[in-house]
Amino acid sequence: MIDKLIRKIEENKAPIVVGLDPMLSYIPDHVKEAAYKEKGETLAGAAEAIWQFNKAIVDSTYDLIPAVKPQIAMYEQFGIEGLIAFKKTVDYCKEKGLVVIGDIKRGDIGSTSAAYAMGHLGKVQVGNNSFYGFDEDFVTVNPYLGSDGVVPFIDVCKEEKKGLFILVKTSNPSSGEFQDQLIDGKPLYELVGEKVAQWGELHMGSEYSYIGAVVGATYPEMGKILRKIMPKTYILVPGYGAQGGKAEDLVHYFNKDGLGAIVNSSRGIIAAYKQEAYAKFGQTAYPDASRQAVIDMREDIMSALVNAGK
Amino acid sequence: MIDKLIRKIEENKAPIVVGLDPMLSYIPDHVKEAAYKEKGETLAGAAEAIWQFNKAIVDSTYDLIPAVKPQIAMYEQFGIEGLIAFKKTVDYCKEKGLVVIGDIKRGDIGSTSAAYAMGHLGKVQVGNNSFYGFDEDFVTVNPYLGSDGVVPFIDVCKEEKKGLFILVKTSNPSSGEFQDQLIDGKPLYELVGEKVAQWGELHMGSEYSYIGAVVGATYPEMGKILRKIMPKTYILVPGYGAQGGKAEDLVHYFNKDGLGAIVNSSRGIIAAYKQEAYAKFGQTAYPDASRQAVIDMREDIMSALVNAGK
Known about the structure:
The structure is a homodimer.
Chain A: H1 2-12, E1 16-18, H2 29-39, H3 43-61, E2 67-68, H4 73-76, H5 79-95, E3 99-106, H6 110-120, E4 123-126, E5 129-132, E6 138-141, H7 147-160, E7 163-169, H8 176-179, E8 182-183, E9 186-187, H9 188-201, E10 211-215, H10 220-229, E11 235-237, H11 247-250, E12 261-265, H12 267-270, H13 286-307
Parallel strand pairs in A: 1-2, 1-12, 2-3, 3-6, 6-7, 7-10, 10-11, 11-12
Antiparallel strand pairs in A: 4-5, 8-9
Helix pairs in contact in A: 2-3, 3-5, 3-13, 6-7
């Protein structure tokens, strides 16, 4: 799956991923009204609005992008109905040939991590049958519990030829509270980065490992160091755009081969129609605004890479 | 809700919580067969087996215990159907007057943590209506992202008079890989413990904070230190029994008032009928085996507390 992701990045000349993190406030009124008319102002109505919103954005962008990253929390907030919309979104994106990164940030003790891994990446056995639960291609994992919370995910990834992105340095303002603490003069995120590189050796693709890392766009100096610590690790970079990360800073997350990183934008793409730059599209043509935002983001990042000689 | 939890612990003389973490392998054949007969060897069949299994154990133990802790991963592995069984379990336990601790170990950047908090503890707004998603009383939270990943949970807890248990030192063998790393001579888990004590001040009950901590039974020396660092924090203690934690070690997690900790057992209670000590009950009377295991666990912990003068 890491090879498929890289192939799609190269084909599309787009090391970008669209974060399908729909807040109800991002969804145009006409989409919500239609959904509420059908299913009421209920959890099912909200889920329907999210699903219709996602579908239109995917239809309008799938030929330009390699991957999407639905953030499960945005669905889980609507309970079971929300999770049904999550599953529909995952399935639809896969039908469209997209790589799906489930942003689930799970992680627990061994047997529990194994259950999450089966539910999101692998199959679960019921009597003589086996079933995929959510069936994403990659998921994000929290490393706080250490190796025995991570390796059960890797075991399932090996079986299914799927992958992970493990949190190393997150994009949020207070990520440094624990992650930047110095251990023998070295910050915790570097220690986690070293571990990710080691875990990566357990499950290698052709050039890069199936076991990737999450490093926020908002900390480019740290990204530069982590790039060196984890040379074979694909880095998923959240925090571009709305959170403040800039393309010229992001070149440090890439290797000299122009690969090694994939940059996420959520709000900047899916709620593009709300920005001044795309206001001309209007609410009704929000999928066209998202398409234009993808084109602009790709151009922004690709020219920064060219300028940096990558 | 922390006051309710403490009141129920005192009424039942039982600082214990039953972990409703049903693996299919724990469920007696006759329960699985009945469920599969009704719904097939499918995800829905597995979910039905889990629900019937849980219900019988709850019916047989609810008058002895203050709380249950369903581990959501064990449900999530069966996809949507599994999560429906999780929700049914949460609702049923609350009907029975039990405090429900959702063991979800979520945690993300601010807006995403807010979505998880709304989905699991609070209400989500849809048009003019608001709805509870999963509606647990407490949830567990992973602190790796720092304050801005935790405070959105606390905000919802304040609104709903609900609480958290934040991972400090987990019970698994490799928890020390990151959690024990020394920062200025002090392990990371102590730093997290200090933060939990601070966060706790944001949302106090009468004697204890609504913001608790998770400290594994398998590390009693660390439990002793953390008890001092977080005097007003309720400690949720996993790892008793099957994972190796012993009652005499657990007294260090309690304060002199005999309060301050609640000990979890999952497999040891829900799969008691599989242990030699309870084999006499047989598969069919598995709920009676669980009831006896609860009585024995309560006796084990209460006499250790009495011996320790707590």
